Amino acid sequence: MGSHASRDFPNKSPYPLPFHHLIESLRTLPGIGIKTATRLAFHLLKAPEEEALQLSREISGLREALVLCPQCQNIMDRDSRLSCCTICADPARDPGTVMVVEDIQTLYSIERTGEFRGRYHVLLGRLSPLEGIGPEALRVRELLDRTGTGEIHEMILATSPTVEGESTALYLARLFKPLGVKVSRIAFGIPVGLELEFVDDITLIRSVEARRPM
Ligand code: ZN
Predict the structure, then answer these.
(1) 117 lies in the same domain as 196
(2) What is the tens place of the pLDDT at every residue in 107-166?
(3) Distance 71 CA to ligand 1 centre (A)
(4) N or C of the chain: less Cβ packing under 10 Å?
(5) Spacing, Cα 134 to ligand 1 middle (Å)
(6) Which domain range does residue 133 map to?
(7) GO BP, one example (predicted)?
């Protein structure tokens, strides 16, 4: 289904080259096949110029406009007057409870449930000996620094229930428990092997509520 360019355009693309290139670029986006890509390209062609320009500016300026929060590694507005992200800066959130996640997308999945009132730490990856990803490639040092200030007393490990996610959780539990941090692992009512970002909100809430000590 739409994954082979040769099959999608049997002979040669019927479109002018710039339009063809736009379709091909849109197709590289996740979940976008040839039909959707073509529909989006026609939409952009018909849309008011300002709308298309706005979209193009937002895409091209995205990386420049964002930096990582120095505390939790979440993304934040480069122009922000805060020295950290809005979650870390929120005085209503418990700084002592930290949810550790593999990626920024999972942080926002949990945030969307509106149930968690602590803070986060994004590892920006997970341990994978097969791919040569060791602890030094993750933001573990930053987590140690945060723990060193004595502020963190509970750590909830919310890495994915995959082999890599589990070994990452085990590694962190072994590292932080001797430092006097209460470490727990979220429970899973979901198929093992599934990436957390694809889990529905209710399952995610239950998983955090039913976390178990490590
Ligand atoms: Zn932050």
Answers:
(1) yes
(2) 999 999 898 999 999 999 999 988 999 999 999 999 999 998 888 999 999 998 888 998
(3) 5
(4) N
(5) 23
(6) 93-209
(7) DNA repair
